[in-house]
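My main concern about presentation is that the manuscript never shows what a single data entry looks like. In essence, backbone conformation is discretised, so a fold becomes a row of integers matching the chain in length. An entry of this sort, consisting of the sequence and the corresponding backbone structure tokens, reads as follows:
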Amino acid sequence: MRNYIIKRLFLSVLILFFVAFIIYAIMRSIPTSYVEAIARERANLPGSKSYTEWIQQLNQIYGLDSGIIKGFFGWIGTVVQGDFGDSWVYNVPVVEKFRETIWYSFALGSISFIIQVSIAVPLGILAARKQYSKTDYAVTVVALVGISLPIFFFATILKLVFSINLGWFELYGTVGRFYEQLDGWGKFLDLAKHYVMPIATIVIVGIGGLMRYTRTNMLEVLNSDYIRTARAKGLTERRVINYHGFRNTLIPIVTIIGGSIPGLFAGALITETLFGITGIGKTAYDAMVGGDIPFSMFYLLFLAALTLLGTLIADILYAVVDPRVRVN
């Protein structure tokens, strides 16, 4: 297992290197020059340098005055040292802005993920156990509704009902206007109150796919020969389902869960933007719209690293869930 992990980590670093080159090459090939826009804006400030001087200085700072290969190795050299440059939109170091916003997204993603798994997996198993019953049809309808609902539409409905009509929650933001005047428990409740609708949006919209996937795999497992053998031996239905069936159902579900791990840190871009949560998703969206190349490159590279990490964790979990799988 140790040799396998070391080998995969080395391969992941190699893949990440080529992904970083592709990201850099795409950013360098963008027809619109944001450097020129920044130079033009700064040249118009009172007492500022000329437009030509700003162009030369900015191109030198960001390595745009050399070829793509030379510029990439110059950029990757600073990246290895943990320096991704300064954000053009937020006027702070990229890493500093990342640390400021990542925990909002992590809280939103992790809570939503735990609730999704806690609801979708048991309901999927229940629907498989009671195939073609009213319970199965009800779970199927809920799953299809969740799959079919667009995020922006469902979020708008929630805000209309619970914010505008009932006035239970705020429309936007992470904390209320009187947040700083509250005590510790009051701050926690205020923060939790602002997260209710974003979490509900992610859970309802994302729960359907996992629920249907669990049901399909559980049906396949329940129709297997070893399940019929276990029942023929006189084992209780609960033991057949929970011990023999559920464990084998987890094997393909691990793939879904492992692929979902990057989402805990990547941020829910649409949800965060709709509800005004200053997480990494909304921050990256604003940076991309504003032409913030340093932050955009960092975010894309961050997503690539998370994807590789999620794939590695899924492979390791395979061996944990199924003893028949031996990683070597």
